[in-house]
Specification:
single chain; 103 residues; alpha+beta; Translation Initiation Factor IF3; 4-stranded mixed beta sheet
């Protein structure tokens, strides 16, 4: 499955199938919070949160691709990401785009 953040695929004629999306909600745990609090004092990357967000992104993409595949898509174009705080200690990562068939 081709996934691009451009509205078209250069040189390809596309049939639009519809909007597809995937999301996941991740929560922090006490160990990550302790490490993050310390890192906040000294500065630098909070590796545990980076890993958590990378895993969340991968899961959201997997869910979007699954939906696109079920529609018969060959690709998803114009892909966008968003994140939001759902409640204290939990965040959602959302990905969406347009499922297309390459003609």
């Amino acid at each position: 499955m081709l996934i691009v953040n451009t509205p078209t695929i250069e040189g390809a004629k596309l049939q639009t199938l519809g909007i597809v999306s995937g999301n996941t909600v991740q929560s922090k745990n006490a160990f990550k919070d302790i490490g993050a609090a310390f890192r906040n004092l000294v500065g630098g990357e909070v590796v545990s949160y980076t890993k958590m967000l990378n895993e969340a992104r991968d899961e959201a993409i997997r869910r979007m691709v699954q939906q696109a595949t079920s529609m018969g898509a060959d690709a998803v174009v114009n892909v966008r990401f968003s994140s939001a705080s759902i409640m204290e200690g939990a965040a959602e990562l959302l990905v969406w785009g347009t499922a297309v068939k390459i003609l």
